[in-house]
Predict the structure.
Amino acid sequence: MAAVQLKTVKFGGSSLADAAQFRKVKAIIESDPGRCFVVPSAPGKRHSKDVKVTDMLYQCQQLAAEGKDFSQTLAQIRERYMEIANTLSVSFDPTAALEKIEADLKAGASKDYAASRGEYLNGMLLSEYLGFPFVDAAEVVCFTEAGVFRMDDTMQKMRARLKGLERAVVPGFYGATDDGRIITFSRGGSDVTGSLVARATRSDIYENWTDVSGVLVADPRIVPDAAVINTVTYEELRELSYMGATVLHEDAIFPVRAAGIPINIRNTNEPEAPGTFIVADDSAESDVETGYTITGIAGKKGFCAINIQKAMMNAELGFCRKVLTVLEDNGISFEHMPSGIDTMTLILPEDAIRGKEKTVLSGIRKAVSPDRCEIEHGISLLAVVGRGMRRTRGTAARIFAALAHARINIKMIDQGSSELNIIIGLLDGDFEEAVRRIYEIFITGASVTVDED
Ligand code: ASP
C-alpha cells in the first residue's frame, strides 16, 4: 500500500459559507487520512449579494471607531455562526466570544483584531465539528511590533506547538506580536497561513480548496468554459498572476516553494476533479506535458505609452538613462521599454502617471530634447505564458497569425529572456478578442489562415 501523504488543507470562505459547505469540507477531510492540518478562512459569501463575515467585522470596527452602534451587524455575525452550528448539531456557541469582541471594539480595538475574529470563530467551530484540536494562530504566527511577518520565529513556534499533534485546525489570516497584539496579512491572507502550516508540518502537499476547479487557462469572463491548467510552475504562475490572473495570495507561494512542497488548487464543490498542481520548474511534475504549448493567457487593461522620437537617438550616450531618471524622480516605475533606432517607448500603468503627465513630459523634453514626445492612452498588455514554448518553434508565429487574422493591430511585442512568456501590447478595444483568438488557436485547436491584403 502506498504511504499516506501528509497534507495541509486550506479552505476558503466560500467553502465554509454555510452548513452545507461545512459538510462537504468534512467529507473531503475524512476521505483522506493524510488531510491532517486544516486552515479555515472566515465564512464567505453564500450568494453573490451576500456579505463576507470579514467585511461585516471591518464594518463593526469602523462603526465602533466612530462611536456608533454596531450591535445589529454583530447580531448578524452571531446568526451566521449559530445557523451553521445548529444545523450541524455542534455545541459551539459564539455568544461569549462575541461579547468580548464587542467590549474590545468599544475599547478601541484595531481593524486587524476585528477582521481576525472571523477566522478565529470559524476555526473554533470547525475544530469542534471535525473533532480536531484548535491551535490559535496568535500563538504560532509571529509579527514584529511594526507589523512585519517573522518567518523564522513562526516556523519555530509553529513546529513546537504542533509537535505531537496528529491533527489540528489553525485559523488563517492572522498572527500576533510578542505581546499578543493581533496583526493580519493582507486580504485573502489565509492562503499564506496554509502555506506556513504546510511548511512547518513538512507536509507533502499543500491543498488549497476553493470554488473553482483549478487555475484556468484564460479568464472565464472572456473565455467561458476555459480549460483548467493541470500543472503550472511557480514561475509561470508568477507571470500569470502579475498579469491579472487571481489564484492565490502572492505571499502564499514563497514558504512552500522554498521547502519544495507542491500546491494543489482544488474545488470543494467538485472534489473529484484533480485541480491544478503548482510545482517547481525543476520538479518531475513540471515535465508533465500540459497537453498544450502554452500554459495560460492573462492580461490587463489600463496602461499608457510614452512615445519618444529623436533623430540619431541611438548615438546619444546616456539618452535612456536621462529619460528613466525623469520617471524615477517622479516615483514612477515602467513595465516595458520597446525601442527602435530613433524611437523609444515606455509602457506604464495609467495609475502611475495620473496627475503627473505634464511634469513627466516636460521633464523628458528638458532632459533629452526629443523631436517628438507624447502619451498614448488605452493600452492593454496580454501575456501568453508557457514553459512549453521553450522547446517549441513557431509559437510566436501562431500568436501573431491569429491576431492578424482577427485584424488586431499589435503595438508592442516583448519576449522575456526566460522564453517563458510573450507579452503583447494592444489597444484596449482589441483585448478580449485577442485573448479569445489566442485561446482558440492553442487550446481549442482552431487553424488560422492569414488573409493577404
Ligand atoms: N477572510 C479574509 C478575507 O476575506 C482572509 C481570507 O479569506 O483569506 O480577506
In short: The first strand starts at residue 7 and ends at 11.
